[in-house]
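hey all, quick one before standup. I had two proteins in the batch that finished overnight and I want to keep them in one place so we stop losing track of which output belongs to which input. First protein below, input sequence then structure tokens straight from the run.
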Amino acid sequence: MARQKVGSIGRALLRHRGATSTVPALACGGLASNGPSPAAAQKCCRGGETCGSEAPKAPPHRHHVVGKKRSEESLTVSGRAYSSTAPKINHKTYLWARYNEMKRLVHDLIPPGVCNLLNPSNIYANNEVNLAEVDIYGFDYDYTLALYSNALDAMIYDTARDFLVKHYKGISKYEYIPNFTARGLHYDIQKGLLMKIDAFHYIQLGTVYREMKPFYMPIRFSAPLQGPKMKQYMDVFSIPEMTLLAAANDYFITNDIEYDPVHLYKDVSEAIGMVHIKGYMYKWIMQDLEKYILRGDETYAVLDRLASHGKKLFLITNSPFSFVDKGMKYMVGKDWREFFDVVIVQADKPHFFNDCVKPFRRLDSNGDLQWDKIKSLDKGQIYKQGNLFDFLRLTGWRGSKVLYFGDHLYSDLADLMLRHGWRTGAIVPELEVETRVVNTEQYAQSLTWLQALTGLLERMQMHKDPESKKVLEDWLKEREELRAVTKNLFNPQFGSIFRTCHNPTYFSRRLCRFSDLYMASISCLLNYDLSYTFYPRRTPLQHEAPLWMDQLCTGCMKTPFLEEMAHIR
């Protein structure tokens, strides 16, 4: 199907090329570097139609012109005629002609089907991974085996806000706003600023919030992005906390109350922590599994398929056994432990991966601690705490034959990839929604035209006359509007979690660094054979050609592979 769609682009290109040889619009400023001169373009107006009289014909070719008459006659150089009496170039008309022709190409040569090339159930590769070499599959629980509905975010927010009311009574009026924030944002603790930062430590303009509205911030950010002054929110559970921070800051600022943002951050963090420590979240989910847990049947299908193919499975989670047990029974069945060779709860990640002090403790079937020394990790048993070094020693599961899935890039995946050589898979639930946005015609048309317009600005900036400068200013304004449109399609405040205007986000760079594969949910594994090899797509560097043949062959092309559009980047 993807190849048929790519073929339709090629056929559209052939039809377009056949037509442009006789279409007057191309005389108004084609895209090729050897296209018509600005003089030829002056008879075109902004809409692309012709206006005024025909361009004056070049004077007849003459030889042996001498004296003063030589400067008044046309000169011939390499067969091309030049005249000192050539009409004055209308740069404004020429620029708009180029603009209109580029816009026609973008509009006409993207067939409707090209907008549905991405499948939300795809698995994406940062490194080459051959599943035939993977014998052991490991999983986190929350937001990996168990996906939760958005109703959980509202409950966490409301409960943490109620903890704060005793200190800040006016905050009770702030209701939870779904999708106000996005994963991967940074929070400046000392200034109380929530912001989106790209992979090169630049702040995306318009994505800094101190209250519930934008706050101006210089584009370059030079302070460390980790440490006591800065917090990055990397997991899905952090979304209610970011929203509550914005609401609390808004309460103090709008009421003109003096406050220390550091104290506020501490209070909000403690309130959110109380929701987890006191077990409120566990209680809500256990009382209404159907309301909060999503797609449990898919979790069963994944585990059953892996186990039936002889793969070893293990679970390492920070959640308590009673909570995990009830959720797994709901999703998989009462015999869910038969799927797993090792089950570890309350593991205290990320310390589990880098601390060799805490020993494993065994739990009985009721979840009570036992006192025997752990000499092996046995199937059917439940273990608490422990550390990765003992886990490796007792199981012998090392290196690239192990693939572990989790949702938190730091707590779940970073140490495993950097220090222990495991393969890692990141679960990014937001990927499903963002893929649907990318597949819309509005996004495809807006983004392609944004890139085309940027190319025009880059090539036409040598025109310095006042009228040309005014045209370029109009284009720059339109470019900013297009950036806002594409950003708002994902999230009106912060846009996509993967991109700023043109760079990857800081979150996206960490995702590429700490995960070999990433996907919306573990159910994406059901779409692939267990001997499948994932290959990372080659993406061009700034100095390389913008389009590659593998993009054409795999149907992952975002803009038509056209000579005329070679400047679209």
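OK second protein, same deal, sequence then tokens:
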Amino acid sequence: MIMETAPPSLVSKARTAFNSAAAKAERVFTDLKSDREEEKQSTRNESDSKEENEVKPQGWRTAHIRKKQDWQNKLKYLRIGRKEVEDQDKVEDSAMAAPFYDENLFILKAKQEQEAKASDVGCLVESLNAVDANCIPPASIVKQLAAAIEAGKRAKTVKDFVASSGSSSPVRERGGLSLSAVKSLVLGEKEDKLGFDSGDEEKLVSLINALFNIDSGFLSRKIVSDLESPTNRPSFAKDLHAAPPSSFVVKLAEVIGSFTTPRRMALFWCKVVDELRRFWNEEKHIPWIPLDNNPDLKSCLLHQWLQVINCCLARKARSVAASEALDAVMRQASSANEESDVSEATGSLLYAKSNSGELILRLGVYHQVENLTMLETGEPVYAPITQEGPLLTEDLIRETEELVLRTGSMGAGCSQLLSDMQAFKAANPGCILEDFVRWHSPPDWTENGNLSGDDSSPVRGQLSTRMQKEGNLWRELWETAKPLPAVKQAPLFDEDLAVEGILNYLEDIPAAELFEQLFTSLLSLGFVMVEPVLATNDDLSKLFFECKDYVVAICQGGAWTDKLDDLCQVYETVETMLLCPEEVLRSMKQTEDSPSSGSETKRRFKRLGFIFRGSKERKQTRVPSENEQKSTEPSPRQSFSSLFDGKSSLFAKRPPRPENVTLV
């Protein structure tokens, strides 16, 4: 019986093809070596021919085979970087050494030295502590953050970014940036997979402590500002929607940008968030952030969130103090009642006389309002301590506007108005709605004058038309309001909940969003520091202001992250203008005379000329988009946004706040 043979498998075919190719390569290699040996053989002396007649020991191999083995060993050791093999064979056969071998070893050694230095957290801490207050942040740090923005686009959050960075290097996947921007992360390609070493923990702790210690003078910069100038320099940060130049965010940007890989940047950011949470739990203010200011809507969101945290700490402290003061008043009033010694002013206690002549204790009093008395009782009106409204950052205002426009609800405003009415009733027993309107919204009250001629009688008048309408919201809320001091009311704004929400978001913030804010903040610091020096330089001022205007135009656009390479190029040029002005002037002149010059500085100016020229052409030829045309028209959203302006309020009348702002 004839059995059919099975067809060869794919593996066997591949093995056969591989062996065949290897055999052919070996034959070619042997022929090449044989030809080389024949050339050498012709130049040998007569002693060589004598040695050929001698008896050869067992295991002796022909010359070309021995050389073939040495060649294979050389290639093998070349792949693993064994330099000693080359040293052994250099005298025997100098022609066998490849020219690129020495160069590769030199580059490898230099790379290893730089890599070791860049990965040393101790060196980084020392360099940051030794920063010159008059020097701007290096362009290399700005490029690091630019590269991190591109790398951060691959993940949704910082945590995802940290987890995903271990399996691949962002340098290989970034093609949008030029080589100059990518070089800054090449050295960290190896450490990107490992993060920090176990021995770096102590150094990282010292770096965190320096960053959060306002007395250490860490990364202090000399910033000169001309507040009388119509275009004062600190406004440049607001033009970029960045953090103020001396703020915590700018210092954080320089620290994070000093790490050599985005993975390390993200890991350090996680440690910063942990420290922010510890500061909140221990009721410590964040350094280099205003203590008790409402969020600055012209700064970046990260700076606004940190402002909210500090402001919440200040509010909690005021709330505790007000609650303790109210408890002391209640105890004192209770003691006075037991002694049956009650008068209109007993120590620190304030009373109001009702229509029946009964004295009622005023609670939650802030101060007496001048030239204002209650219409029914004639007692003086006292402004109450009211609840402070919610702290709204830019993102919350946008969400609130969308909610109001979509639903027509003004719930937050109604809650604030009701709270103010309750506090007013507690501070002014026997008051009526007209008294509250005269204090809270004077335009809604029209005085008729004193018709009786008696100066002691209260001035009469009437409410505005909208207040007299049936179903008026103010009257309905007044009827439901109970006399209750602000500290005893349900809070309108929960500080603990707000800060917890911010910290949770910072833990999971999108990596690209974080690095973008750090990038613009550090960029603005450099320009703010340079302007006082270059603005007075007749030779360089024009180029500097062109760079500044270009950065503002790009950053105010919607897709500025597509121009990261150009922004780094401009910043590097400004840095060169500050450090080497003579080189810049010489290069500018040579660039004008010979545009094809090949030095790095000249190429940069040629590139900048193209950038600025293209930017001006786009400004002249670009047609405004439909959204831009709509943005120039009056919008109902703009009028609503004014409700959250610190200078105006529709529903609440706040007590005056201290104007002097101190930093912790």
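Flagging for whoever picks this up: The two ends are 98 Å apart (CA to CA). The CA atoms of residues 49 and 113 lie 51 Å apart.
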